[in-house]
Design goal:
409 residues, alpha/beta, Nucleotidyltransferase, domain 5, 2 domains, 5-stranded mixed beta sheet, globular, binds 5'-O-[(R)-(carboxyoxy)(hydroxy)phosphoryl]adenosine, binds zinc ion
Length: 409
Amino acid sequence: MKILAIETSCDETAIAIVEATGDEANAEFAVLGNALLSQIDLHREYGGVYPMLAKREHAKNLVPILEAALEEAELLHEDMQAMREETRDKIAEILSREPGLTEAFLDFVSESERPDIDVIAVTAGPGLEPALWVGVNFARALALAWEKPIVAVNHMEGHIMAALARESSSRSNLEVKDVALPVLALLISGGHTELVVMKSWLEYELVGATRDDAVGEAFDKVARMLSLPYPGGPEISRLAEIARSSVSKVEPYSSNEEGSTLLTPTLPRPMLNDATCDFSFAGLKTAVLYLLKKNPEVTEREKHELAREFEDAVAEVLWKKTERALEATGAETLVIGGGVSANTHIRRIFKHSVATRVDTRCPPVELRIPPAALTTDNAIMIALAGFYRALREEFTHTPVASGRRSLTE
Ligand code: KG4
Ligand code: ZN
């Protein structure tokens, strides 16, 4: 089955073409084409992602990205296509809310051969709703022009499948096989902090979630307090790694007030010892704010130490809650997914903790972490999740974008 997958939930415009074989228990994926355009440089100027700006950029980029993905997959062939007036009108209507896209789209489909693909997969949420709608409407227009079915994909299921996938030996392929259930997924991104269990394939239950900020949001906000550019996660990570690798011992200021100096900052570990698998990151963010208010002049070295302590606090809480969820669910596979799972320190803590975990009450657990290129938003993960939905024949002509689409409702 050849899948063309479209991802526009946030600030990445991405299209991938993936050939999938096998079944739910044993699937292989060959990536035939993969094109991605990040809007990060644009949003960086504004210090965050603006949904309407993201939407406009997706509308501008989708046709060129589609051409690039098809070309890489050797599926782009020039050919004049006759299109019925009625189809043309319908497409114009579907794309009427995406200014500028209609003309580029109609030019493209009337000048190129219908590609040999079987299904179109599109991210329908969660994410930024205006951004999601561009992708969804684009998928609807393509489905109409090419007479192909659509599957609507949950973005978080995409992150889970990317984490379950392993690079296989042959070509540039991925495989999802030998997955021991239940799977526990820690999903950490700009909008999500959730522990979800998959007891049977594609059926999810919520085990824990953040009560306030998502962890990626906390990274981004703390980065802003430290005058670091957007997105803050990678910046904090970079500074924290400098602090960890620094050989010179930090000389603490003399102070009798805990957490009041920036060279030896101590931040709280919110909800670390409560009985739930829930998280809270707002207090951690506020603690950084107070510390900076008390110490308005921050040296570079103090920034590094603060970034390190912040990352230590986040990683400790994430692991502790995940460990509790492993006990509660008896999970045999653990995955971490979402943009924050790119974080070097979190990956290191999880690998080390799983490897050294001794708990005779629980089965041993296999940790799967997504290959680096599949960690942040991309369309390959949408193709993977789309394959399973297509196997179940969950086809639709009218996918609905929803910013709050949940895996567990
Ligand atoms: O999954 P993702 O690409 O988009 C959403 O669906 O939200 O996640 C983006 C988030 C941002 O908050 C970004 O700061 C964070 O992931 N992030 C990181 C790292 N790389 C990206 N956070 C910590 N460390 C990183 N290396
Ligand atoms: Zn994401």
